[in-house]
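Follow-up to my post from last week.
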Amino acid sequence: MKVEKWSLPSILITIVLILLVLVMVYPFLYMISVSLSDSIYVMRGEVTWFPKGLDFSTYQLVLNDARISQSYLNTIIYVSLGTLISLVVTAFGAYSLARRDMLFHRGFTLLIIFTMFFQGGMIPTFLAVKSMGIMDSVWAMVLPGAVSTWNLLVMRTFFANFPTELEEAGRMDGLSDFGIFTRIVAPLSQAVFATIGLFYAVAMWNNFMFPLLYLRDPELFPLQVVLRNIVLAGSNAGSESMGVGSDAMVVEESLKYATIMVSTIPILLLYPMLQKYFVKGVMIGAVKG
Amino acid sequence: MAMQQSELQARAPASVPYGRFRRRWSRGKLLLVMFVPCLLYYVLFKYYPMFGIVISFKNYNLYKGVWESDWVGFKYYAMFFQNPDFWLLFRNTFLLGLYKLVFGFPAPILLALMLHEVRNRLFKRFVQTATYMPHFISNVIVASMVVMFLSPTGGLINQLMNSLGLETVHFLTRPEWFRTIYVLSEIWQHLGWETIIYLAALSAIDPSLYEAAEMDGAGRLRKVWSVTLPGITSAIVILLLLNVGKVLEIGFEKVYLLANPTTYETADIFSTYVYRVGMTNGNFSYAAAIDMFTGVVSLVFIVMANSISRKVSDNSLW
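User reply:
Got it. Predicted complex:
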């Protein structure tokens, strides 16, 4: 396998992969460049790779927008509270499911797996949430997606492979099941907690359907809804021609890109550091598959 | 002998189901308590809505609620099947799912095979980092990017096409473009991420197989065909199965965000129709009937995919 390092196939594969990387990264590069460029260059369509005539005014406008700062705060609240609740409920549930000696172990497992194949659907779920009286509150964001079956099963698989000797040792020392989990299993499973917590956090950060269905009060809107109202509702309605003259039109474009970047930057910055945890999560899940 | 007997007697009560149950109960009730929040979630947000489907057989009345509303039998199901839009929705949902499967399924396999051939670790890691990234971007942002880049006024793609002497295309208001746009954006988003499982399967292939193939004079392509591909066949089959089962389960968010009345001809799918009928027009019973219909059809798809695969190969989901 060490021979033919720069043979024709290797070169072709390298070229294809580099092109692919460009396709993945360039859109972000372009948006950053346009949003940071002077409007004259944007208008002339001269911005391609790097910002021209550095100009931070679009970001000033975006960050001073009351809707965006309010929704940013809302999203942060939903993400922190949601991740905490999801993680606690999922971890406890997963640990008890991993213990084959739990009463009704099989029944509960089937109960959960069945929901992967059949669900009530959008409207019955909406009516259920409505009848619980949690519409238009933090709980409507946090509770309906509190447990993801996939994450639950990944965690269960992880806990099921936890060395039983350690659990036995805890039992010898007089720990209850609760104590065994909180004092022995959980502290030794930090990696899986980090992984699953990140999955929940990203899903909550990106969630658009829950606020669309369960929130009516604009004060409660998360970033994604505000983002959509600013960027998409405008362009869908063809309001781009609304600006005064063509100059205003292009500035609006930079403004939209700046809005997109402001709401994406946390994920873009954190992602490379957290990547290994995400991959680990898929791996644990795949072992079982 | 006597000891054996007394031992048996001591054990006997425990083997009686009721005794075992009691022992497991007293030993394991804390485990059950730990499971309660999770159980509560499934009961409240999964099973309670499942029973809420009864409103599709009723005439939902806001003041009477789900349980008190009047029964109407299959009225809303009949209404749906007789609706001229039914076949349009069915076709759109099915074709969107089919194209996503046909073009989106092989893509990560190809990428994984290419990554597997890369010897330089740093370069491989770099490509992986770059291609996994879009998976974490929200649908709202991806849809925003698509809309902005395809904009007929100053959008990146149209600018590029104009500079090549091509005419401006109004991509997002032309029904014939919707499926292409949707499928390409799906591939862009998830291509990298979906290679992970294949890469794991690829790294588990025994290196001695490659050496043996080399001894037999196999070239590079031959090795891919005879060693690499067989090594990931079972992963491919399982994932194909899952994806065939999910053909009709197209994510609501992105279609909802990218579609508009001018493209409904190809872009309107079951879930976006349910949203409009239920949430916008407030016809909950009719919308729930469509929910139920899609749920049952998806279930049938999964069961069928599984049973076909079990007959044809050794791989199955259950």
